[in-house]
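Handout, section 4.2: multi-component inputs.
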Amino acid sequence: MVRAPCCEKMGLKKGPWTSEEDQILITHIQRFGHGNWRALPKQAGLLRCGKSCRLRWINYLRPDIKRGNFSREEEETIISLHQLLGNKWSAIASRLPGRTDNEIKNVWHTHLKKRVKQEAGQTLQQEPKRIKGTDQDNKKLMNVNNIDPVSPERSYSSDISSSCTELSNFALKEQCMDSSEEVPVIEDSFWSEALSMDTSTSSTAAVEYTPFGCGFGFGYDQNYITAPFNDPFNCTDVSYNDHRSFWLKMLQSGDLQELPEI
DNA sequence: AAATAACGCAACCGCGAGCAG
DNA sequence: ACTGCTCGCGGTTGCGTTATT
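Output:
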């Protein structure tokens, strides 16, 4: 396939956008939308390529963009999601309303990566078990379980659900593949520690808060949503105690390979 | 005050996925 | 099944700003 000539060869402009160009793009998109990015610059009278227009709109001109510094809470969410998803910036961005993948990528490389490295150095011995898996693995597992991949159109709460599902799939796979791994004993301290967590702050992300050390959750309204392995509650708003009862039952049944239908 | 280094961020590039013909 | 096209994503670059010497 022959690649389309680059912007410069087509006589198109590159580099920083002027306020005039911004205004033209905003006005055009407000009036006609952006059905076809490639055709848009010509229609709008801009000497830019469609890619450049798209990027400018997505990362800077969209009306729902949240400007300004990231809050501590947002940063913690990024760190947690990065542990879970890796460099899936768009997936992370879909969970942070008003933030773009580019912005998150930048903040990760300039601030958070260093911070995580520092903190990891400090708490090396307490480092949680990482969830392994490739895109291919995830897709396969999603197909097997009839689970839709994350879609940007989903609501925020559904996104949380997707995160949980993705992670529980990885964890489930790990568990199934490593049959030599014994079901860990839940110590009383786990529940007391988990229940004492401050989950009153909206969308506080936490990883590893399950009896098996491989869950992922969001706390809010004094409930804690978590998804160790295959989440029987589909990550809807359930209390921590409901989860606790379920997992205790699972452990008593002694069979974590075959997950019961709820 | 000037030079240099480090940082932050907008923008670009190349690739792959998905879709239509 | 193949081809060509568009879009979206992740990695990278380059420039302006700020901090340091």
